[in-house]
Fold this sequence. Notes:
Elements: E1 4-6, H1 13-28, H2 34-45, E2 53-58, E3 64-68, H3 81-91, E4 100-106, H4 112-117, H5 119-139, E5 146-157, E6 163-177, E7 190-192, H6 201-221, H7 237-248, E8 254-257, H8 263-273, E9 284-288, E10 291-298, E11 304-311, H9 312-320, E12 331-335, H10 342-353, E13 383-387
Parallel strand pairs: 1-3
Antiparallel strand pairs: 2-3, 2-13, 4-6, 4-8, 5-6, 5-12, 6-7, 9-10, 10-11
Amino acid sequence: MTALVVDRPTLEVGDVIRTHGADFQAKYGGLLSHTQRKALRDLAVCRTAALGGHVAHCLDCGRDRIAYNSCRNRHCPKCQALARARWLAREAENLLPVEYFHVVFTLPAELSDLALANPVVLYDLLFQAAAATLRTVAANPKRLGAALGVLLVLHTWGQTLQHHPHVHGVVTGGGLSCDADGVLDDAPRWVACRPGFLLPVRVLSRVFRGKFLDGLRTALARGKLRFPGRLAALAGPTAFASWLAPLAGKEWVVYSKPPFGGPTQVLKYLARYTHRAALSNSRLVALEGGRVTFGYKDYADDHKAKRLTLPAEEFLRRFVQHVLPQGFVKVRHYGLLANRCREQRLHRCRRLLLASPPAAGSETGAVAPAPRPCCPWCGGERIVRRAWESIVAVPTPSVASPGDTS
Length: 406
């Protein structure tokens, strides 16, 4: 008889859903969106017998290994590797041989509940305000007088899974010369920033604050904001204006990290931050007695590694906060990298920089191929794959709210 082993990590988010999904449904089911319910259903069955799979048979030692199919949900900690590799291969074509900076724009905690109630409106506004801030400040001839290349990635979580909306930006250390409105010159030249310095953070913070608050006021005037539950008291223009007033006098968190140093470091950053779930399975420590323990870094305490234990229902509540609305684009390009005219503008940049596009297969032009599969027991490479026809669907806890038939 051949040995039969199933590929599966020791502990994963799906285990929490399968074990405590019913209790979570009973407590919060009526508050979940369709996309959140779907994410929980997908993660519960990801790489289990319910989705089928295949058997990898080693011709050298005779052992079999089962690999179940994945759910491919973008919020699943296990299903991002292939999408990330393909995306990185495409993104590598847009890299320029210049310094790149890491800029982060964060919403104040006071806006968290409003963002949860209006995720599409506020997350879109976060992107727009951050991109417009970089464009406006960089275009100022007293600062740089150039149009930058900007890639923004939305994250909504902190290390302990609390709601913490912010965008990470990858920004070129310079750009094409333009006027104060961001319109490129007729014959633009490349304008490089000072070595190690992009734009003043305090200026970025205040411009970002102003643009975001203006956007909120416009959204209210156009009737785009919802005020459910305890937010109902803010629904009127006067109450909303009074509530926003303290935010207008507060310093908003915007910071710029040191430059990456080159295209290779940019790719490493992109691999870490783009196709990423709120919590990786590797951070899970234990699931015992209805409680989940996971590791995190405490940035307020010198980045020390710590552990947090939560009731399973609270863990899942925090996790589903970060399921984005269906179809929401979480990685966006602006300026020189905007989809419109991107190829033409990058060609002009490379010509001015006397550079060629990254060659296919180069360190910055391609993602390393996956290693050749081999048997984990004997190391043999004579692997035969076949569909596993004896898979039987396994029951999973319902995470749909009452009356949901989708």
